[in-house]
Amino acid sequence: MATETYLPAHPGIRPATAQDIPVLLDIINGAYRNDAGWTTESHLVEGARALAPDLEKLIPPLRDPSTGTFLVYHPTTSTDPLGCINAEILPDNEGYFGMFAVNQSQQGQGIGRKLMEASFEVMRIKGCKKCVINVLTDRKDIQAWYGRCGFIMTGKTVPFPSDAGASKLKPGVQPVLVYMEREL
């Protein structure tokens, strides 16, 4: 599938493939578990953010395309994808995104916003009216960034998932995620 035609308004965005998984693991784990960069959670969470089976479930044939699309930003100027986002379709005309990460050396160049906008388009195409996300309670900086992207706090919270794979909260970290939402 040609990158330029998947979402015409979003050049460089395409669905992830199984061949992308090694690079995407580096991007995701680097962004969330490296000691550098503003997206790191290494002071709050230990263990890998994602493992290969986590990503394999997000890519056909293991994923039904009606449940969402795992997108990558892979411009023609790069040999590898530079970022990713998983656009998930939920009941009640809601979308959700996760596995949102940009290569640390490429952060601050608008790639994250491009990926987020492309995920919103996927959600709108599938009939979603709003997007919801979960953010660790202790990540006020990330909550503020999402606020600048149009998300608002809902007042809802959920516990940190007990089935978070290799990810475990460090002692003293609140095991709570806040819900934020944005109209599409």
Please, could you describe this protein's structure?
- This protein has 184 residues and is of the alpha+beta class.
- It has 5 helices and 9 strands.
- Helix content is 25%, strand content 29%.
- The strands form 2 sheets. A 7-stranded mixed sheet has the order 1-3-4-5-6-9-7. A two-stranded antiparallel ribbon has the order 2-8.
- The longest helix has 15 residues, at 111-125.
- The model is unreliable at 1-5 (pLDDT under 50).
Largest sheet: 7 strands, mixed
Distance between the termini: 26 Å
Structural class of the secondary elements? alpha+beta
> Helix proportion of residues, in percent?
25-40%
- Give the full name of the CATH homologous superfamily: Gcn5-related N-acetyltransferase (GNAT)
What is the global morphology? globular
Total domain modules: 1
Over the alpha carbons, how many angstroms does the gyration radius reach? 16 Å
Mean pLDDT: 90
Q: Order of strands across the widest beta sheet?
A: 1-3-4-5-6-9-7
Number of strands: 9
The secondary-structure element order is HEHEHEEEHEHEEE
> Which range does the strand content fall in?
25-35%
Residue runs with pLDDT of under 50 for 5 or more positions: 1-5
- Architecture (CATH level 2) name: 3-Layer(aba) Sandwich
**CATH class value:** Alpha Beta
What fold name stands as the CATH topology? Aminopeptidase
